[in-house]
TrEMBL record:
The chain crosses the membrane at residues 6-23, 87-108, 114-131, 265-285. Residues 152-283 form the Type II secretion system protein GspF domain. It comes from the Bacteria. It is found in: Cell membrane. This is Tight adherence protein C. The lineage of its organism: Bacteria, Bacillati, Bacillota, Bacilli, Bacillales. It comes from Amphibacillus marinus. Keywords: Cell membrane, Membrane, Transmembrane, Transmembrane helix. It is a multi-pass membrane protein. GO terms for cellular component: plasma membrane.
Length: 288
């Protein structure tokens, strides 16, 4: 057995040891959070390492940004600590999978050190990709909310202008979109349920704004809370002005998405062009 095989065997033992030590200790903790996360089968190992190294406590100042994104994306609320812990466990699990895969491939190929190097590189890249993916999900969620908000604000303005109260207009507009999967309407449905259960309208709207975590939603809720008691023309005018601004932002998002879609098509088009060029040129080159 050469050095690479010994190192590979050691990596396999080190990676599997936390999973064996964790046992069934974290099953009850993992169960409520299984759906949003990947590599759940290795989550006990990640959670065991987090607890033993006190990782969250040691990196508390650096985890603030991640906690905010996790709270926004998964609507963690009071369970933000648990969601953050599961997210870190997912990252650790991805590292363990890369190291295990590299070590197993190295053993299978008779001690090929390139497999170990590849596994190590993937163990570094995957956490970075995971954090980037989290940023992208938060960004897409924000864009989805901004995309729907101007239409929603315009509908409320029309209903208020027609004599409906702000509270009833908000409930009616939300119920019209109760089957919509947009995050804006998901948050609105939760708010409408609270209003119908008798909770304070002002408090519900403030909580709605915090859950969305989008500046434009904060402007929307502030406009409503400042004017909903007055109602009538003042609220309708304020919402129309806000809706006009939001429509401009929606146009900007649509333009950005169009540009991104165009840029994604560049590589396939170049690939197809090269393939066609080779097909056309090959017979001529074969003659020579």
């Amino acid at each position: 057995m050469n050095t690479v095989q010994i190192v590979s065997a050691a990596i396999i033992v080190v990676c599997l040891l936390p999973l064996l030590l964790a046992g069934k200790k974290y099953q009850a903790f993992i169960e409520p959070y299984k759906e949003p996360f990947q590599f759940v089968f290795l989550a006990p190992a990640g959670l065991y390492l987090i607890d033993k190294t006190r990782l969250i406590y040691r990196l508390s100042s650096r985890l603030v940004a991640i906690q905010q994104k996790v709270a926004t994306l998964y609507q963690a609320g009071r369970e933000i600590q648990a969601y953050t812990k599961m997210y870190l466990a997912e990252i650790i699990s991805s590292i363990l999978i890369c190291l295990l895969g590299g070590a197993l491939l190295a053993l299978a190929n008779g001690g090929d050190q390139r497999m170990l190097i590849l596994g190590g590189m993937m163990a570094v890249l995957l956490p970075a990709i995971s954090i980037k993916k989290l940023d992208d999900k938060v960004k897409l969620r924000k864009q989805a909310i901004i995309f729907e908000l101007p239409e929603f604000a315009s509908k409320i303005a029309l209903l208020v202008n027609a004599g409906e109260t702000c509270q009833k207009a908000l409930i009616r507009c939300t119920m019209m979109k109760q089957d919509d999967d947009n995050p804006l309407y998901k948050e609105l449905k939760e708010s409408v349920t609270k209003i119908q259960n008798g909770e304070s309208f002002s408090q519900v709207m403030e909580e709605f704004s915090k859950r969305c975590g989008v500046q434009e939603v904060s402007a929307f809720t502030t406009t409503i809370l400042l004017n909903y008691r007055r109602g009538g023309d003042q609220l309708s005018l304020s919402l129309r002005e806000l809706a006009h601004t939001l429509w401009e932002k929606r146009k900007a998002i649509s333009k950005t998405r169009g540009e991104q879609a165009s840029s994604k098509l560049v590589f396939p088009m170049v690939f197809i062009f090269v393939a066609i060029l080779l097909i056309v040129a090959y017979p001529a080159l074969a003659i020579f």
